[in-house]
Amino acid sequence: MVAFQHFIATIAPQAEALYILGDLFEYWAGDDDLHDPFHAKVIGAIHTLAAGGTKVYLMHGNRDLLMGEALAKAAGANLLIDPALLDLYGTPTLLSHGDTLCTDDVDYQQFRAQVHSAEFQNKFLAQPLSARKAYIEQLRQHSTAAKQRKDCAIMDVNDSAVVALLREHRYPRLIHGHTHRPNLHHHIVDGHNCERWVLGDWDNKANALRCDVSGIRWETILS
Questions:
Q1: With contact defined as beta carbons under 8 Å apart, do 121 and 203 qualify?
Q2: Which of 105, 153, 202, 205 is the most buried (most CB within 10 A)?
Q3: How far apart are CA 159 and CA 157, in angstroms?
Q4: Does position 94 have pLDDT exceeding 60, yes or no?
């Protein structure tokens, strides 16, 4: 939380826009949880940033896929469809959370398809908030145990899925998170050299990317 507060208060206000590519929260059980003290602190900080003139865009992650319009309004932000193709200072840039690229993890993709269905979400959100939180906590424990049994390579992106996405969107620069392996990768797709920038997990080391007319580079949050 310290790194986030520092970033929102000192670095993000310098930007025209801030794009948060999912997993802003450890989990989001629904927009009726806006007043949780921790959630309110995060949302309030983002709202202050937006009120100061920085546009804020939120993309759903696998942990907070139930973020809705009430949350976006409270934060002064806009929800962003995954993937989103933008022109960032003359460079076509595709933003994604990144979990759809992890196609080798078949169990996860099946689970993802289930929880992204409107039927599942409607039934889930109809339950009391306490029941939803308890269910999510159980899922998190199960997920943690399952990850320990999986090969790390299975949980990373599939190169063919990356190439297909880059080809579909005409060879843009790609920025995503989810895998928590911050790095710059180069993919040659139909003769085009495409950059893929991967954001990390702030539990380990807070990092962000700054895009401007001079290009793209890592931003130090706390030294």
A1: no
A2: 105
A3: 6
A4: yes
